[in-house]
Design brief:
By secondary structure, the protein is of the alpha/beta class. The chain has two domains: about 120 residues, Glycogen Phosphorylase B (Rossmann fold); about 180 residues, Rossmann fold. The protein has a six-stranded parallel sheet, with helices on both faces. The protein has a three-stranded parallel sheet with strand order 3-4-5, covered by helices on one side. A two-stranded parallel sheet has the order 1-2. The radius of gyration is 21 Å and the shape is globular. Bound molecules: iron/sulfur cluster. The site of iron/sulfur cluster has 14 residues, from helix 11.
């Protein structure tokens, strides 16, 4: 959904944009100026089954929309557009492609933000796509308040530099295993900087390991934001950080939206798949010489070859050095925006 926002902004220049989204994705689009309304489609609960689909289709039809851009390519969303009576445009690789009114080539060589943006392109201009797109998010007052409270509790002063680490991922093989060593390295380089750990509640053990490593190095106490913030709250916190070091996971895209300098660690996946960082300043680290990369679309639970070299061999000192490049010159750690 985050990478869809350049497409939403483009469409909003031509007319009202209504977005059909899951409850979690709907929250990401809160306050977005390009979005006239969000139709929540809770396909697992309140809108489950055929009756739920018909209900959501009626809501979509009521907006007066004429075209549906199928960022999410399931047969279910394709059927939704059909039932709503709106034409649909989607990728020629999507599961629901047989139901689309128009199919667009899925360009493997483009960033996914570009692919999505191109859904709204006249087929005769298919090659006209901006070289660089950046997503956008708009944390609201409640998201900002979450961050203010978190930083206040942690005793962080205005302008105090923050370094964000996002050690989690849904997929085990995407989780770089040395964030604790990196935190030790960073605490040695910048004793006055504070490390903020982003992630879901399930990432709390990773934050605990980072806390211990920083304590051992005598660094300032970390800010453990795992499970504490909404997605837009995490975006608001990233807006306040000098740099984010992250795996190939959601915080990478949040940082792109907030233009937070990013050090991205890729193991079983590669940026060429279309999901690399888009912040103006970013560095990608990975073992490019490994012929087994990429080994899956999303990363898996275990390395199929058993050695997991793609992540194990990325060193904390290399990542620390990449983070250091983002301090020169440092992003101004100003007030929340
Ligand atoms: S097969 Fe290669 S790319 Fe995949 S997890 Fe193992 S080391 Fe990483």
């Amino acid at each position: 959904m985050i990478l869809t926002t350049p497409l939403l902004e483009r469409l909003a220049r031509a007319g009202e944009v209504h977005v059909v989204a899951t409850p979690a994705n709907a929250a990401v689009l809160a306050n977005h100026p390009a979005v006239a309304s969000v139709i929540v489609y809770d396909k697992r609960r309140t809108d489950a089954g055929l009756l739920g689909l018909i209900r959501v289709a009626a809501r979509l039809r009521a907006t007066g929309a004429t075209t549906a851009y199928m960022a999410q390519g399931s047969w279910r969303t394709a059927a939704l557009a059909r039932v709503a009576g709106v034409s649909s445009v989607g990728f020629d690789t999507s599961a629901g492609r047989w139901l689309y009114s128009r199919r667009v080539a899925y360009r493997k060589d483009w960033h996914h933000a570009q692919r999505l943006w191109a859904l709204a392109t006249d087929p005769r201009d298919a090659s006209v796509v901006p070289e660089r797109l950046r997503p956008s998010l708009y944390p609201g007052a409640s998201d900002q308040a979450q961050v203010t409270a978190l930083l206040h509790t942690a005793g962080v002063g205005d302008g105090e530099p923050l370094i964000a680490l996002a050690p989690g991922s849904v997929w085990a093989t995407k989780r770089w295993p040395s964030y604790d060593a990196l935190a030790r390295d960073l605490a040695g380089r910048w004793p006055d900087a504070r490390i903020a750990v982003l992630g879901a509640a399930a990432d709390a053990p990773l934050a605990a390991a980072i806390r211990i490593a920083v304590q051992e190095r005598g660094g300032a106490p970390i800010i453990d934001a795992t499970g504490q913030l909404s997605l837009l709250g995490s975006a608001a916190l990233l807006a306040r950080c000098v740099v984010l070091a992250t795996n190939d996971s959601a915080p990478l895209h949040l940082a792109s939206a907030m233009n937070t300098p990013t050090v991205a660690l890729f193991g079983p996946t590669v940026p060429a798949m279309g999901f690399g960082p888009l912040a103006d300043r970013h560095v990608v680290l990975g073992r490019d010489e490994l012929t087994c990369r990429p080994c899956s679309a999303h990363g898996g639970e275990a390395c199929p070859l058993g050695h997991w070299t793609c992540m194990r061999d990325v060193t904390a000192s290399d990542v620390g050095a990449a983070v250091a490049t983002m301090f020169d010159p440092p992003r101004e750690a100003g007030p929340l925006r």
